[in-house]
Amino acid sequence: MKKVVVFGAGMVGSAMALDLSKDYIITSVDFNEQNLQKLNENNINTIVSDFTDCEKIKDIASQNDLIIGAVPGFLGFNFLKEIISTGKNIVDISFFPEEPFLLDELAKHNNVTAVVDCGVAPGMSNLILGYHNKRMTVEDFICYVGGLPVERVQPFEYKAPFSPIDVIEEYTRPARIVIDGKIVIKEPLSDSEFLEFAHIGTLEAFNTDGLRSLIETMKIPNMKEKTLRYPGHIDKIKFLKQSGFFSEKEIIINNQKIRPIDLTAKILIDKWKLGKEEEEFTVMRIYVEGFVNKKLEMYQYDLFDKYDAVTKISSMARTTGYTATAVANLLLQGKFDRKGIIPPEFIGEDENCFNSILSYLTERNVIYRLKKY
Questions:
Q1: What do you get for the CA distance between the two ends of the chain, in Å?
Q2: pTM of the prediction?
Q3: Percent of the chain, pLDDT > 90?
Q4: Which domains occur in the chain, in start order?
Q5: Half-sphere exposure in the Cβ direction for 242 (13 Å, CA)
Q6: 3 forms bridges with which residues in the sheet?
Q7: By CB distance 3.0 to 4.6 Å, which of 48, 65, 206, 240 could disulfide with 2?
Q8: How does DSSP assign 227-243, residue by residue?
């Protein structure tokens, strides 16, 4: 039986470990022993380790057939680089700010398949676009996506399934979109619009830098990704941002240097932390429009997924994690072996791989509903 190691035992990492443990020998690695306790109870091997301990990380990786990366975004790039140097294939969900293709030559040199950004968005959104781009002339692509709590608690009406510092990064990093074939830089939180969703009601969408690899790999005239929140959330975030709470410039308080963004993240970690067994949902809507044999066609994909009260696994962990484990299965079964840095759109180009991932997700009740116009 093949062996897989999952680095990171947070909400998503633990869900991936549990999912893969049905078919493989799983080891979970985290610096937090408490995160590993639940996995120990499910007969998953666990190791306590700091993700910055490069030698230990490489030693653990070398003893496994496949690596799953679920470390915090600010550690993601260097972690990925270390794993690639071991010659082991990896499926990674870290949303790191660095350019992943900087590691492409290293991955090819080490004969490694390194799938990056393999979550829900980026991730499944890329897979969908990659599939259609191979089969039609795509003119427009837009992805709306968000994860939200069912219970709306003021002032933010938001809970984060991951570190607040990673969420703040989405609110501060300039958003790259594509208009008429040119990259346009937009302010994050800009161009707000309201959309209606069944089972939810009205949500507000705004620009974030979610296209990532698609800007380089897809030659499509118009592309953008927007994040979804409850109406009013944007104004509160803008207030914090404009007031300096997201500043990375150190200030001195009581003779101690501190970055305002670190203080903000520390304060928000409790306010934004999902409660144990708290209900939340993931919503995504994707539009792909273009021409098939000179005929205009549009495809709409809708996802609405809720917290699973039976397994006690959050929707964000399910929609993000199971996309990654679906791809991990493809690699472990030898159904995809392209080498280098592999964004999900490369996998979506293969019809068998694309359908296999959709089937894998459907089996876990993560369902993408398709409408064709």
A1: 45
A2: 0.94
A3: 91
A4: 3-120+315-368 (3.40.50.720), 124-306 (3.30.360.10)
A5: 8
A6: 25
A7: 65
A8: EEE-TTHHHHHHHHHHT
Question: How big, in percent rounded to 5, are the helix, strand and coil portions of the chain?
Answer: 35, 30, 35
Tell me the three-class secondary structure of 110-177, residue by residue: CCCEEECCCEECCEHHHHHHHHHHCCCEEEEEEEEEEEEECCCCCCCCCCECCCHHHHHHHHHCCEEE
User: What's the pLDDT at 344?
Assistant: 98
- The predicted structure's pLDDT at residue 43: 85
* Rounded distance between C-alpha atoms, residue 140 and residue 74, angstroms: 31
DSSP-derived 3-state class of residue 18: helix
Contact 166, 159 (CB under 8 A): no
Three-state SS at 182: strand
- Do the Cβ atoms of 145 and 227 come closer than 8 Å? yes
| Residue 114 to residue 28: CA distance in whole angstroms | 19
CB atoms within 10 A of CB 68: 29
